[in-house]
UniProtKB/TrEMBL annotation:
Residues 280-289 have a biased composition (Low complexity). Residues 73-245 form the Leucine-binding protein domain. Keywords: Amino-acid transport, Signal, Transport. It comes from Acetobacter fallax. Coiled coil: none annotated. It holds the Pfam family Peripla_BP_6. This is ABC transporter substrate-binding protein. InterPro entries: BCAA_transport (IPR051010), Leu-bd (IPR028081), Peripla_BP_I (IPR028082). CDD domains: PBP1_YraM_LppC_lipoprotein-like. Residues 280-311 are annotated as: Disordered. The keyword Transport applies.
Length: 485
């Protein structure tokens, strides 16, 4: 059956009226779309809807007629074909694993486990066709899609259908009531870092970030985090990915010129504040001698405004400078550009003994190479929390899961827990957004009414010999599902 017939069949099915008592889904059920209510009453359309969903959405066979009668089943929207099929099928396997395990929260559960109804967002019609198939099948909650673009496309359809969405994107621009951004976001990481740094007495925050989407996401997150924590607005500088731009940008952010001038006993007023003849006279006047570390009187070269410390290395070598105008610095670079940033920090005498360096969770992938910034922090999930999940996944799939499979497992376990708490009546917002949250393989998380997700990530500290260890594990409580958490 092609998709044209499917939509014609759905429309025809919705036009049929069934006599008898209407099933009341209850006030907590998010699935209240009028079209679906009519479909529930359409006995003559059930077979057509079930067949259409099977042919168009990749759902599990033998369950769709039940889906139409009760919105308890879980739709998983992922790329199951195409270039991202490997990742999509791995995440689907993780979601199935979570939904196959009974919830063990101490409360007897009489409702049957929800079934997985898989829909391919890379198939004909893309993500929109996938979400339409899920709505036609009567699924009660949507896990996925994977990307920000797909989330943007399916959101209006899902909201109109009254079905909650747990999207795997980390793009917070997609959040809204009923559409939860479930990926690990820069905001979550920065919130955790700022709270931990403030707790140890850091008050002046700054950021030196690449001029790219990740850099701007981190910068925006730092502004929000400082505002929420009642801290002063942070200084934020963005740089192009060249050694020259990194060196000059760090010199400006770290106030290198004025710190050198202060060390030389000179006024730190900007040259633009002086009359041109006085500025010229000062620039040609002999510089004050500064004792070197060996005790001889050697002249110390002063950095002129706009120059980089790389060409004036004598000043920092001769004497230590005062601390830069911040005590916590957020970085966002990776790879070679991060090496250039680290070199720039040394040249500008930004020391980890004075400044708490912080970075994105992506640092965890190469923490063994970060020994030169020992003491730096990043926020990421505690790998100890996922050991049981990795074990269970490996037994089933004969290999370890990729990190994104964690999201699918936690989303599946979340759906299973909420379904059990509602006694099989659906996925009400008040349970999805319960204040004490849920605990998953990526740590404690809470869905907020506005569509955002908070995560209590662990804080890792880089070691001098490479690698990192946890200095603050974050909060935790009983897992949301038995077995793999």
């Amino acid at each position: 059956m092609d998709r044209t017939y499917w939509f014609q069949s759905r429309k025809a099915a919705q036009a049929v009226t069934l006599s008898g008592t209407r099933r009341n889904p209850g006030p907590d059920n998010l699935a209240r779309h009028p079209a679906r209510s009519r479909a529930v009453r359409c006995c003559s359309g059930i077979a057509l809807l079930a067949l259409a969903a099977c042919s168009g959405g990749g759902g599990s066979s033998g369950t769709l007629s039940t889906n139409v009668m009760t919105p308890r089943n879980v739709a998983v929207l992922l790329p199951l074909t195409g270039p991202n099929a490997s990742l999509g099928n791995e995440m689907l396997a993780a979601a199935r694993l979570a939904l196959s395990r009974p919830v063990s929260n101490g409360t007897p559960v009489t409702a049957p486990l929800p079934q997985v109804d898989a829909h391919d967002t890379a198939g004909p019609g893309g993500a929109v066709a996938a979400v339409q198939a899920a709505l036609a099948a009567g699924d009660g909650i949507l896990l996925g899609p994977l990307t920000s673009a797909d989330t943007s496309q399916i959101a209006p359809v899902a909201l109109q259908g009254g079905v909650p969405v747990i999207a795997f994107t980390s793009d917070t621009a997609q959040k809204r009531p009923g559409i939860w951004v479930f990926g690990i976001t820069p905001q979550q990481q920065v919130d955790r870092l700022v709270a931990a740094a403030a707790a140890e007495g850091r008050h002046q925050f700054a950021a030196f970030l690449p001029d790219n989407p990740l850099g701007h996401a981190l910068g925006d997150a730092l502004i929000v985090s400082c505002q929420k924590a009642g801290l002063a607005p942070p200084q934020i500088a963005y740089h192009l990915n060249t050694p020259e731009a990194i060196a000059s940008g760090l010199a400006s952010l770290a106030a290198y010129d004025s710190r050198v001038a202060a060390a030389n006993g000179q006024a730190a007023a900007p040259a633009s504040d002086l009359p041109s003849d006085l500025a010229a006279a000062l620039s040609s006047a002999p510089k004050a001698d500064t004792p070197s570390s060996s005790g001889s009187n050697a002249p110390t070269e002063t950095v002129q405004a706009g120059s980089t410390p790389a060409s004036n290395a004598t000043a920092p070598a001769a004497q230590a400078l005062s601390a830069p105008p911040f005590d916590a610095l957020l970085l966002g670079d990776l790879g070679l550009s991060l090496k250039n940033v680290i070199d720039g920090l040394k040249a500008n005498q930004v020391s980890t003994s004075q400044v708490r360096l912080m970075g994105p969770g992506l640092w965890s992938a190469f923490a063994t190479k970060l020994g030169s910034i020992a003491g730096a922090w990043y926020a990421a999930p505690d790998p100890a929390n996922r050991k049981a999940f990795v074990q269970a996944f490996a037994i089933q799939m004969h290999r370890a899961p990729r990190p994104l499979a964690d999201l699918a497992y936690d989303a599946g376990a979340l759906a299973s827990s909420v379904h059990a708490s509602s006694d099989g009546k659906g996925y009400p917002a008040e349970i999805l957004t319960r204040s004490h949250g849920f605990s998953g393989v990526d740590g404690l998380f809470t869905l907020l009414p506005d569509g955002s997700t908070t995560r209590d990530l662990a804080i890792f500290e880089v070691q001098s010999g490479g690698g990192a260890h946890i200095v603050n594990p974050g909060a935790s409580h009983a897992p949301i599902a038995s077995g793999a958490t």
